[in-house]
Amino acid sequence: MNSFIKKYQPDTLKDFGLEDSTHEFINTLIDIDSLNVLFVGDPDAGKTTILKCIIKEYYKGYEENDYNNNIIYLNSAQEQGIQFYRNEVKTFCQTCSIIKNRKKIVIIDDLDLINQQSQQVFRNCIDVYKNNVNFICSCTNLKKIIESIQSRLMIIKIPKIDQVKLNQICNKITTLEKINIDEKSLHLFFRYCENSLRIMINYLEKFKLYNQQIDSVVINSLCTNINDCIFDELLVLLINKDIISSIQLLKGIYNQGYSVMDILDCFFSYIKNTDNLSDESKYKIIPYICKYIHIFHDIHEDEIELSLFINNIIKLI
């Protein structure tokens, strides 16, 4: 049985719901067989899905097994350094396409996470083989792509999914899967989704497995590792400068098996989305939480730091 992510993943460019002008432009590039493109967008914009849709459209009429060897996929997690680009990629580009009247394709996901030396070698590949090979890339941070690559690829910006589109997809899935979400709780649900389609679909799959009416209590239980009600209580204690009770509350969460990082990550999301705190206070607190997350991630994680964290946060509220 497919997960909801696979089940409801767009299969074609039309399904993806791109702006008409962007959709038409991509179709034109496919028609003229000039797909040297760099897609730019946020992590949840759907860049990887668009790449898959383009490949299906480009090799339309052929089964996936027929054209798999005509494509090489690269990403930052697989990066083997300069020699890989000089040898394997070069060898791939030099061999002929196995699909008649169609070029081979080099796909690089997260190009901005690949070091600049490897990007330079990749740029040389584009110069030498662009007439016989299509180069399709994606990135989140355009500033990390060297200028010489930017000038050689068509840059297409993919906007982050908006609330209207999220609502449409949510309605479609809840209708098809017969998931009953209380209308009054939808605002709370979308707050947990943080404008991310992937997060929303994963939560909807949880609701499907739960197989009962979904209300705010259920949403608070299923959509977060630590219930928001606990952080509501913590916020009141912090505002009242009750440092001892605040520390005891956090230690209680820690003793339930949550790591310090778990607690800080959930508290970060809570502070970002809560209506119980002014924007001014949020702007003071959020950088401090991020600082602690960075320290625990790169240096150490110790339970005693929760007490120091509370002591410093109280001074900011």
Description:
The chain has 317 residues and is α/β, with parallel strands linked by helices. It folds into 3 domains: 154 residues, P-loop containing nucleotide triphosphate hydrolases (Rossmann fold, 3-Layer(aba) Sandwich); 60 residues; 89 residues, Up-down Bundle (Zinc Finger, Delta Prime, domain 3). Helices cover 57% and strands 8% of the residues. A 5-stranded parallel sheet has the order 2-3-4-1-5, sandwiched between helices. The longest helix has 20 residues. GO terms for molecular function: ATP binding; ATP hydrolysis activity; DNA binding; DNA clamp loader activity. Keywords: ATP-binding, DNA replication, Nucleotide-binding. This is AAA+ ATPase domain-containing protein.
Q: Which features does this protein show?
A:
globular, DNA clamp loader activity, 3 domains, 5-stranded parallel sheet, Zinc Finger, Delta Prime, domain 3, nucleotide-binding, Rossmann fold, 5 strands, ATP-binding, alpha/beta, DNA binding, 317 residues, ATP binding, 17 helices
Task: Tell me the layout of helices and strands.
Blueprint (H helix, E strand, L loop, with lengths): L3 H4 L5 H4 L3 H12 L5 E4 L6 H12 L5 H4 L3 E5 L6 H13 L9 E6 L6 H14 L3 E7 L7 H4 L3 E4 L5 H14 L9 H8 L3 H14 L5 H7 L5 H12 L3 H13 L4 H14 L5 H20 L5 H13 L1
Parallel strand pairs: 1-4, 1-5, 2-3, 3-4
Helix pairs in contact: 6-7, 9-11, 10-11, 13-14, 14-17, 15-16
Task: Write a brief structural summary.
It comes from viral metagenome. The protein has 317 residues and is of the alpha/beta class.
